[in-house]
Amino acid sequence: MGPGNRPREETVIETVVPAPEDAKSLRDIAPALDLEAEIARLRREKNAVILAHYYQDGDIQDLADFVGDSLDLARAAAGTAADTIVFCGVRFMAEVAKIVNPTKTVLLPDANAGCSLEEACRPNAFRAFREAHPDHVAITYINCSAEVKALSDIIVTSANAEHIVRQIPADKPILFSPDRHLGAYVMRRTGRPMTLWNGICIVHEQFSERELLALKARHPRAKITAHPECPEGILAHADHVGSTRNMLRYVLESPDKEFIVATEKHLLHQMQKAAPDKTVIAAPGADGSCDCARCPYMALNTLEKLYLALVNGAPRIDMPEDLRRRAYLPLQRMLDMSPPATQAMRRQPIGVAAE
Ligand code: 13P
Ligand code: SF4
What we know:
Blueprint: E1 16-17, H1 35-45, E2 48-53, H2 58-63, E3 66-68, H3 70-79, E4 84-88, H4 91-99, E5 105-107, H5 116-119, H6 123-132, E6 137-141, H7 146-150, E7 154-156, H8 161-165, E8 174-177, H9 180-190, E9 195-196, H10 209-218, E10 223-226, H11 232-235, E11 240-241, H12 244-253, E12 258-262, H13 267-274, E13 279-282, H14 303-312, E14 316-317, H15 321-337
The structure holds 1,3-dihydroxyacetonephosphate and iron/sulfur cluster.
Iron/sulfur cluster (SF4) binds near residues 55, 116, 202, 229 and 297.
């Protein structure tokens, strides 16, 4: 199922309020408009902060107030003093920003920016999964809908999943959803058996072990850094496994000069910016190219749609207060159980509009 075809079962609660019929659209943007300058002006006028994930296009990363992984973005959203959060990422991330900030306006440039993991884990099926395992604690990856969060006990990200699983009492059985590769990786790291949901990320699933080994043979000194959403066959060859922020930090702090990077390709933009003296190479897919390592959902957000979101005040995240409260609890448990915040890539205090 691709972006724009958001699958919805009857009970799923819609959390995105679309732009009204008479809202400004792409057709209304004059070709000569200086988008960056207009976005900066609107950001000041509306006391807005722009948060961006590392998988966004480089032009969006470059004008964001804060660029981060899912955990740092959740923390940044929780800590902002701005009135409006423009979330340049996917829907579940913008939902998290709203769940931790109910009084703020949260905008998502494209209402259809979903995630294959969210789509693979519908609330009704997840509820049945929980009911079939009543004595289990449900640990759920943040890449899921607000409704699935509300049905979970603890949320995790790729940056803290292992740390949180290690805190669960040994006699407590665990359900881990929805990413089976991240779940299997945490099982291998902790030795802890878990019952896994069978979801995957379509971007990380397409990396080719054969092509990765061929690339490594051509760059024998390159270190391989991989995201734990990759299948085991890719992770088995990695010198380092971590969340996007930790992959970036590995490249910055390592004395090595050449790296093969197995995650969505736009993380390389930040790596090249932060470490221009290092060579970063995108891991290949089955056809030997890296171009398939592009998230089609993240790609729906553009500078034009970011500008329109600020003009229109939409698409906007909204949800029933009861759902928000229920989804907040497992997210708060995650923040309480996470390792202390580490230095993130912050250009300025969150909530201070850029000049
Ligand atoms: P992190 O940035 O938390 O590593 O997550 C990667 C991802 O797939 C987000 O959708
Ligand atoms: Fe979802 Fe994968 Fe895209 Fe992340 S990269 S938003 S996990 S589809």
